[in-house]
Specification:
alpha+beta, Gyrase A, domain 2, four-stranded antiparallel beta sheet, 4 strands
């Protein structure tokens, strides 16, 4: 993985959101300079299962989210710390999360 990943400009952020949200179960937004999403699962165990599967992807990508879990809710904020903002890595991670979430939640 490249060490220096450039920040996305506003137009790239907008087009990234459009592309990501076209495939998302619920929309991603930008909140406080981070790519943000809340997932709601049927139970704690499905929320935790989602997080466990995502954790494996995070390790492979060496890209880790800020997330919290309370019962069936998982709140996620994505930001590339070494770049100081949102990069293509964050959208790549978000897309992977959407694929995994689809295994746990039916829209």
């Amino acid at each position: 993985m490249a060490k220096n990943v450039p920040l996305l400009d506003p137009a790239q952020l907008d087009s990234g959101l459009v592309e990501l949200n076209a495939k998302a179960l619920e929309p991603w937004t930008i909140v406080d300079g981070k790519l943000h999403r809340r997932y709601k699962f049927p139970s704690f165990s499905t929320a935790f299962g989602f997080m466990a599967q995502v954790a494996l992807v995070c390790e492979v990508m060496s890209h880790h989210p800020k997330w919290t879990n309370v019962w069936n809710l998982v709140d996620i904020d994505l930001l590339t710390h070494r770049a100081g903002g949102i990069t293509s890595l964050d959208f790549e991670m978000a897309a992977a999360m959407e694929e995994i979430a689809a295994l746990y939640v039916k829209s």
